[in-house]
Specification:
Structural class: alpha/beta
Number of helices: 7
CATH architecture: 4-Layer Sandwich
Pfam families: Lactamase_B
Largest sheet: 6 strands, mixed
Cofactor: Zn(2+)
Number of domains: 1
Keywords: Hydrolase, Metal-binding, Zinc
CATH class: Alpha Beta
Protein name: Glyoxylase-like metal-dependent hydrolase (Beta-lactamase superfamily II)
CATH superfamily: Ribonuclease Z/Hydroxyacylglutathione hydrolase-like
Number of strands: 14
């Protein structure tokens, strides 16, 4: 499986396009610039089969409807943030005053619990990793040795916890119990900034020391 990291939207949120050899792909967190993303997918002759969200902050969902409608694919989100898609207050777009109130149509698929999921040829483990937001999810692709961590864990940092439903202690618990238990060589694909590895963050992330 290959992946492309594509920074999109006003905060340059990392959108990930995961692709199998046959060209089918999963889209994770299309934060904005829908036309740019759609063009890249078409230019590479990819076939999207689903759109999954790590969480529903405005900078991760800005192009959801545009991409969903273009490719006629289902959208997945955790039940705790399903309502956030429709509400600019909950998803933060009203507070940040980025010039646009983000309202996204309801998700097609609701994730309720941690589970092994398979969408087409893509097999992955869903981890609940709340703290940055109540319904934050991480997606672990064991065979490929990678985890898409949303805004839970970054290269040298962790997600902010001062937004609606954020909880610092809960985030640290999520990181230590769900992410740092993965093999140290696991590649971490974060919601912002460059990729990292579990081992690198265990050794050098200053926010995780002394937990």
């Amino acid at each position: 499986m290959k992946y492309a990291q594509i920074p999109l939207g006003p905060l340059q949120t990392n959108c990930y396009v995961l692709t199998k050899e046959n060209g089918t792909c999963l889209i994770i967190d299309p934060g904005g610039d829908g036309e740019k993303l759609i063009q890249a997918i078409k230019e590479n002759q990819l076939k999207p089969i689903a759109l999954i969200l790590t969480h529903a902050h405005f900078d991760h969902i800005g192009a959801v409807d545009e991409v969903r409608e273009e490719f006629a694919i289902p959208v997945y989100i955790h039940e705790k943030e399903a309502a956030w898609l429709l509400d600019p207050i909950l998803n933060g777009s009203q507070s940040f005053q980025m010039g646009q109130m983000i309202r996204v149509k309801p998700a097609d698929k609701i994730i309720v619990n941690e589970e092994q999921m398979q969408i087409g040829e893509f097999k992955f483990q869903v981890f609940e990793t709340p703290g940055h937001s109540p319904g934050s999810l991480s997606f672990y692709f064991k065979e490929e040795g990678m985890v898409v961590a949303g805004d839970a864990l970054f290269n040298g940092s962790i997600g902010r916890t001062d937004l609606r439903g954020g909880n610092h202690e809960q985030l640290l618990k999520s990181i230590h119990e769900k992410l740092l238990t993965l093999p140290e060589e696991t590649v971490v694909l974060p919601g912002h900034g460059p990729e990292t590895t579990i081992g690198h963050e265990m050794d050098g992330n200053p926010f995780l020391n002394g937990f």
